[in-house]
Design goal:
Helices cover about 20% and strands about 30% of the residues. It is α/β, with parallel strands linked by helices. Helix 1 links the parallel strand 1 and strand 2. It has six helices and ten strands.
């Protein structure tokens, strides 16, 4: 049985491409709505055959077409369904100038509890759930409905608190941990992922008997 990795907000594929390359038993479902990045993932994963599935869609708590904001930065690490907060100079300091929008495109967005039955109807488990959707991670989890219980372990990103939100409607560590615990997950660690300590990763897992 393969090890199933969901990579939601795959970006350039730093997380999942190397894992698929190093372990032939890993099957990846990569969700990335940025057209150029989705194309990059398709090219880079050609040698993996049917073990790496690129899905050029957004994921959240809504089924339909949404605006998607493309960052004015070659790295495109902050492309998001969420808009940047209006004034980031105080909380993001020297990084604030890079948080501006170059383009707004329309992308298809799905709740996973609507998408999964039609696309992976026999899915039994998600061994690891890596989610980095730039301020949208909580909505991704909420949009899973009962399918959230297929997750064994994962990591999501959130703002440290309301004061340092990078995006409008960004969720916080407290909101994320409360939701995950309400679904029966254990928080295994919480750690900063930027030098300003504004964004944090929440690692979680569930014990299955």
């Amino acid at each position: 049985m393969s090890y199933v990795l969901f990579d939601v907000g795959t970006n350039w594929g730093e997380n999942s491409l190397s894992k698929a390359a190093n372990d032939p038993n890993i099957e990846v479902w990569a969700f990335e709505p940025t057209p150029s990045l989705a194309y990059h993932l398709m090219q880079r994963s050609e040698s993996f055959g049917d073990r790496y599935h690129v899905q050029p869609i957004a994921v959240g708590d809504f089924n339909g077409i949404l605006d998607f904001y493309i960052q004015d930065n070659p790295g495109q690490g902050c492309n998001s369904l969420n808009q940047f907060n209006d004034n980031l100079t105080d909380t993001w300091k020297e990084r604030a100038p890079e948080f501006r929008v170059a383009e707004i495109i329309s992308v298809p967005s799905y709740r996973l509890d609507a998408w999964l039955p039609s696309n992976i109807p026999n899915l039994e488990k998600i061994d690891y759930f890596h989610c980095d959707t730039q301020g949208h991670d909580l909505k991704v989890l909420q949009g899973m409905g009962e399918y959230i219980h297929l997750i064994h372990e994962g990591v999501v990103e959130c703002a440290k608190d309301d004061r340092v939100k990078l995006y409008k409607d960004n969720h916080t560590v407290d909101q994320m941990t409360a939701f995950l615990e309400s679904k029966g997950f254990t928080i295994t660690s919480v750690e900063s992922n930027d030098h300003l300590n504004n964004e944090w990763n929440v690692h979680f897992k569930k014990e299955y008997k």
